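We close this part of the discussion by returning to an individual protein. The amino acid sequence and the backbone structure tokens for this protein are reproduced below:
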Amino acid sequence: MHYFVFSIIGIATGFLMAIFGIGGGAFIVPALDVAFLIVPNLSHPPFQLIVIGSLCTIVIGSLPRAIKVVSGHQSERTTATILILNALPFILLGSFLATQLTDNILRLGFSVTIAAIGIWTLIGKSPTIKNSESIQKYSPCKLVVVGAISGISSALFGLGGATLLMPLLTMWVGLPISLCVDISILFVSVTSIVSLVTLSSAWIGVHGANSITPEIITLILILGISAAITQIIAAGKLVKMNNQLRQKLLGGYLIILSLWVIARALI
């Protein structure tokens, strides 16, 4: 029964990820939260373990696509490398902080981050679609800031992919959307692996390996793999949605999600 429920929630989550063209903490974290909440006689894991489960899913879904990006344009690899190198110290910092902060503080931090992105997405101006050849001159300092924000957000909340990186790179840094997609995939794959390893190690170092039961690992993997596979299959088959409408719907979803997480923290 547990496995069936987690599979169904994973499939539904995968469809949402495919519709909005993003996949990661903004969908997997609340999906895992809901799944553990609605299944009877199942202990709810700490928020840190839910983030670890989200990172597992991101790695599974992004790694095959990231390998293809590596053989792409030099400009994409260079920009992604700058972001990754600036993110690594903050991933280590975030992994340490995640073991020291309480469950409620992490949930509130997640909700504030998601709400800020949601409001920006909802009322912000859609970036002009450009070809990768028409790259504007951008400030390297902005890439440093984006890398730092994405790195610490990835380790603390499982966020740092397209939900956070795409609006920052397009609407703030000024990179073309076509370039940002590949940069985001490569960045997310590498930083998620690092975040997963460092956060898991930090958690086990503080709480011990017995704090992560085989049942929790199995259920998280079932939901994550179901979502990742569904997203891959559905991404090319769903009806195309107007970009402006997609942006507004995504912004509304993120704001509603932030309210849900706040409510869960206060219960």
User: Anything to note?
Assistant: Residues 2-266 form one domain.
